[in-house]
Target: 2-oxoglutarate and iron-dependent oxygenase JMJD4
Amino acid sequence: PGPEEEPASTPCPRELRPPAPGRSTPAPNLPATQSAALTLVWRVACVQNSQPSLTRCLTSGDVVVPVANCGVQEYNSNPKEHMPLREYISYWLEYVQGGCSSPRGCLYLKDWHLCRDSSAEDLGDVFTLPVYFSSDWLNEFWDALDVDDYRFVYAGPPGTWSPFHADIFRSFSWSANICGRKKWLFFPPGQEEALRDCHGSLPYDVTSPKLLDTRLHPMLQHSSPPLEVTQEAGEVVFVPSGWHHQVHNLDDTISINHNWVNGCNLANMWHFLQQELRAVQQEVHEWRDSMPDWHHHCQVIMRSCSGINFEEFYHFLKVIAERRLLVLGQGSEAAQEENIGLGLGFQQAAFDVGRLAEVLASVVTHPDFQRVNTSTFSPGPEELLRQLQDAVAATTTL
Ligand SMILES: O=C(O)CCC(=O)C(=O)O
Ligand SMILES: [Fe+2]
Model:
C-alpha cells in the first residue's frame, strides 16, 4: 500500500489480552490497546513515580541519549548518533518552531535505556510495571546478570517514525504513550512475505510509492492492507510476537516500550533462532566442507547478526528455569508468602516450567545444539530437562 492507496482501517480489539498470570491457555497473539482502568492506574503511577527520575533526566539534560536520523536509510534502519539530552531537546524545539522541519533532518530519540542508565536502585523508582507485563523473561534474565535490559524510552516530534520491522527474537513488545499519539501499521505473521521486492528484501517503508511498482514488488498484489491502529496519549499497545510493524509519531510523543518474552512466545523465539541459523548456514554453505569448525563459525555469525546463539539461548532458559524451580521447590504457600518469582506466584511458575520443558526438549534434540560443547554447563541440558520434567509431573498431580 502506497500513499495513494489508503490502507483499510480495521477496528482494533480494544481489550488488553496479554498472557495473564496463572493462565494455562495463552491469550491470542493479536494486537490490542488498553485505555481503561489499567492505563489510568499505570499513568498515575508513572507520572508520580517518574518525578524523581524521568523529569530529573529531562531537566538535567547532561545524560547522553541515542538519536536516529529518520530521514536517512541505512539498510532497513536509520543511522544513530549519541548526543546530550539537552541538545536533543533544543533540536526538538527548533524543529517544531520551524514547522516540523530542520536543516539537521528529522531526529528521533529511540531505544534509550532509561532504567539501565538511571541511578535509581529500584525499577519501581522509575515507573510501575503493570502486572500484565510482569512475566518478562528477557528483562528478568538481564537483571539477574546485571548487564543490560530491554526497557526503552522513545521520544520525538511529529514526523519521527520507526521503519518496518518485527521485534528482536520475535518477542512481544508493549508501548505506553506518556503523551502524544502514534499510528501503527501491523501485518500478521507471514503477510510480510508478499511485501518482499524482486531481490527478496523486505521494505524499509511500507507507505513508500516504490511498493506500487509491480516489477519491483511482484507479490504485492497478494498482500492485504495493514491493520492500522492509532494509539492515543495514555494508551498501551500490545505488539504480538512475529507481527511486522511500522510506527509514526503523530504528535510530540514520549513512550515507554519494552521487549518481552515469556512462556507464551518462548516457542516462537526458539523457532526464530532455528530459522536464523538456517539462514546463516545457507549463506556460508560453500565453505562447509573446507572450513574446520564450520558449525561453530555459524554460531558465531548467528550471534553477531541476531544477538544470541544456541549456547546463550540455553543459558537464558537455564537462568529462568532455575528461578522457577526454586519457586516450585518452596511449595505454593511459601512461594506466595515470600512473593518469589516476581510476585507471579506458584501457578505462574508451574505454567512457565511446562513451557520451558517443552522448548528445552526440542533444543536438546536439535543436531546443531548437540554439536555445542556443553561439558562445562551446570546443570547440563539433559539434567535440567529432567528436573523440569519432574517438576511438571509433580505440579500436574497437585
Ligand atoms: O514507537 C516506535 O517508534 C517503535 C516502537 C516499536 O517498534 C515497538 O514497541 O515494538
Ligand atoms: Fe517494534
Observations:
- The pocket of 2-oxoglutaric acid (ligand 1) is lined by residues 154, 162, 167, 173, 175, 182, 239, 245, 247, 255, 257 (CB under 6 Å).
- The two ends are 53 Å apart (CA to CA).
- Confidence is low (pLDDT under 50) at residues 1-24, 36-54.
- DSSP finds twelve helices and twelve strands in the chain.
